[in-house]
Task: structure prediction
Amino acid sequence: MNSCPLCHPANETVLWQDERCRVILVDDADYPGFCRVIWGGHVKEMTDLTEPERAHLMTVVFAIEDILRETLQPAKINLASLGNQVPHLHWHVIPRFPDDAHFPDPVWTARKRGARATSMDRTRLIGELKQRLGDSLG
Result:
């Protein structure tokens, strides 16, 4: 039986989804706007997808990046597709700020400072996603 946590999610905040992938908001007080784009089927690598599927997934990743840049105006956006611990294709889209808990290091390293007091307008993010990618099927 498949015990993949991305195939069988619990307590996700889904911002947008279609028949192929979903965008979730990661509940991390240090990183408002941190999103994951998760492929719907259980595959491990980008090369497991067809060319059109890859293009679709990256369209969603780039839309999230663009929306976060416009709405939060971060110093940088980190994109990562690791999958070492959860081998299910997904992308992390993480807005970064000079005063965030780990900057300029990756978010998975030791903290350098306390949490940043910033919020994310979830309604605006959902609205922008729907406008750019179409209405959610969920």
Observations:
- The mean pLDDT is 89.
- The first helix runs from residue 51 to 72.
- The helical segments are 51-72, 122-133.
